[in-house]
């Protein structure tokens, strides 16, 4: 959802750890692409934390979620091992550089500045209290997959 015109955009402080291209919002959408900060060769089956060249101070009450781009696997043959990244608001120290945890499914080369993933921010979960109980609802749904295929 777009911000109403009278609301100021939320500010995100970005620290660059290397001379990669500056981040910009993607032209057709609301996510922000992230770039590899280095050239890296990976062998099939290899795991490597690819530095993304940035660290950020997010607005209070927000976290960031990096995910692969839809084209990441086709272009680079890598999978993001945590699938849906969670960057905590407190990950904002001077050395807290964002990384992409990559698993190479084939031999591959990623070049510095290649756009390998994207992120957005979203509000953190509200305060919750975890309460241990003996019973939940009486009516169970019948197990995973019990509603069928169609
Ligand atoms: O894709 C990701 C996910 C996380 N992080 C950074 C920011 C995050 O705040 C920190 C820790 O992430 P997470 O809590 O998911 O990992 P953990 O395995 O629980 O590590 P920790 O013990 O540091 O919390 O690592 C990244 O750079 N990239």
Automatic annotation (TrEMBL):
* Domain dUTPase-like, first and last residues per copy: 33-147
Which EC class, in a word? Answer: hydrolase
Family as reported in the entry's similarity comment: Belongs to the dUTPase family.
Origin species:
Paenibacillus sophorae
Q: Which InterPro entries match?
A: dUTPase, dUTPase-like, dUTPase-like_sf, dUTPase_trimeric
Recorded catalytic activity of this chain's protein = dUTP + H2O = dUMP + diphosphate + H(+)
Q: Does the keyword Hydrolase apply?
A: yes
| The name this protein goes by in its record | dUTP diphosphatase
What are the alphabetically sorted keywords of the record? Hydrolase, Nucleotide metabolism
Q: Which Pfam families does the UniProt entry name for this protein?
A: dUTPase
Source species taxonomy: Bacteria, Bacillati, Bacillota, Bacilli, Bacillales
- EC number from the UniProt entry: 3.6.1.23
């Amino acid at each position: 959802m777009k911000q109403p015109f009278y609301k100021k955009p939320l500010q995100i402080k970005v620290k660059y750890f290397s001379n990669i291209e500056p981040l910009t919002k993607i032209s057709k959408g609301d996510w922000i692409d992230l770039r590899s900060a280095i050239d890296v060769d990976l062998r099939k089956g290899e795991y490597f934390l690819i530095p993304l060249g940035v660290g950020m101070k997010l607005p209070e009450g927000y976290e960031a979620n990096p995910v692969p781009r839809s084209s990441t696997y086709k272009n680079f043959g890598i999978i993001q091992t945590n699938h849906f990244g969670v960057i905590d608001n407190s990950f904002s120290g001077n050395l807290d550089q964002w990384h992409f945890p990559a698993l190479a499914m084939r031999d591959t080369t990623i070049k510095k500045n290649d756009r390998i993933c994207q992120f957005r921010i979203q509000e953190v979960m509200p305060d919750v209290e975890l309460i241990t109980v003996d019973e939940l609802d009486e009516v169970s749904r019948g197990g995973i997959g019990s509603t069928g295929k169609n």
